[in-house]
Design goal:
3-stranded antiparallel β-sheet; 4-stranded antiparallel β-sheet; alpha+beta
């Protein structure tokens, strides 16, 4: 959702000891991506992370060398350390069990650092995904993107998946309220293989780094875990490592002082966020330009893995029950569902 270029540097002084290359991130030239950014303040989120939070973060990322962001027109620039010498991962191929463990350990430390203490990120201006003001807007946006996603990728929405996606859409605001009732922390938001680097810099204290913080904010830590396991591991590998990965995550956050959070709580929240993978499928499939063959392949692979996880874990159990007939929640669900059906008819 942005333009990323690698710049090779030369110095007038041959003895200059600056970096030989940097990565520069700029606004996307694609209209759909630009619209998505404006609606969700993606560039602003990433600028806030790198300029205000990264220096104290327990997770390794690219070092910010220069950054600027202009609020009125949402223009920004980030000049960052080039991690290109480290090992990147093919999103389609997926990550190994060892790489999964490295990623789980890193994200667990980040979540534990901010567990139910999100004043720093909140004061910095990062959004809380559970904000009651945003729930209705999120549901409306989902229902707008859903017909587009089904039109763009009909093979990903057979009848059973389509019905689940539609029902989820009419109850999305209630779903967000349900997950927001759990522990809150600072989340990466797009914690998948394509944004990860695995290296050999253990002498510097790290062998894992993650970039692309455009969707970071305040939310449930298990959102990041579900993103990792459901999008970045082949389905069979996810089935084999899932329980062990969740237990290690739980052990790490508890070892950092988190209390009142049982493994049963952890497992339930994970399954709840597996259902939430539908949200990403619809927003990406219906809201972004995936014309490039490689982008389509990566999206479809992640979507299929997520659908398999939803079915394996019977995550549809976490569809919110209908609220009482005359409640505001039920009226909103009914009205948005009717508007969605009318919108689909108009698009035919």
């Amino acid at each position: 959702m942005s333009t990323v270029v690698r710049c090779r540097l030369t110095y007038a002084d041959e003895g200059g000891n600056g970096p030989r290359s940097v990565v520069v991130k700029l606004p996307s030239t694609d209209r759909k991506s630009a619209r998505m950014n404006r609606r969700h303040s993606l560039y602003r989120r990433e600028y806030i992370y790198y300029s205000r939070l990264a220096s104290a973060s327990p997770i390794r990322g690219a070092e910010l060398l220069y950054g600027d962001f202009r609020e009125p027109d949402q223009r920004f620039v980030l000049v960052m350390e080039d991690l290109g010498e480290e090992t990147t991962v093919d999103q389609v191929k997926g990550i190994t069990v060892a790489e999964t463990r490295s990623a789980i350990r890193a994200i667990a430390r980040l979540h534990a650092h901010y567990w139910n203490e999100v004043d720093g990120p909140s004061r910095s201006g990062l959004p809380d995904d559970g904000d009651p003001k945003m729930r209705g807007l999120m549901q409306i946006a989902y229902l707008v993107y859903l017909p587009r996603a089904m039109k763009n990728f009909p093979h990903l929405f057979p009848d059973r998946t389509r019905r689940l996606a539609e029902t989820f859409g009419t109850r999305l605001a209630d779903y967000v309220a349900d997950v927001a009732a759990g522990p809150r922390t600072f989340v990466h938001g797009d914690f998948r293989a394509a944004n990860m680097f695995f290296g050999r810099r253990k002498t510097e204290g790290w062998d894992f780094a993650v970039v692309d913080w455009q969707i970071c904010g305040i939310g449930s830590g298990l959102y990041d875990v579900a993103c990792l396991l459901c999008s970045s591991l082949p389905t069979e590998a996810r089935r084999q490592v899932e329980d062990e990965a969740l237990r290690e995550y739980h052990e790490i956050v508890c070892s950092h002082g988190v209390q009142g959070f049982s493994f049963e709580d952890c497992w339930r929240l994970y399954r709840q966020h597996v259902l939430g993978r539908l949200l990403i499928m619809v927003f990406v499939g219906g809201g972004l330009n995936l014309a490039a063959e490689r982008s389509q392949q990566a999206f479809e692979t992640s979507a299929r893995r997520s659908i398999a996880a939803i079915e394996d874990l019977e995550a549809d159990e976490f569809l919110p029950a209908r609220r009482s007939r005359f409640s505001r929640a039920n009226m909103f669900s009914t009205l948005s569902g009717g508007a969605y059906r009318a919108y689909r008819l108009l698009r035919r």
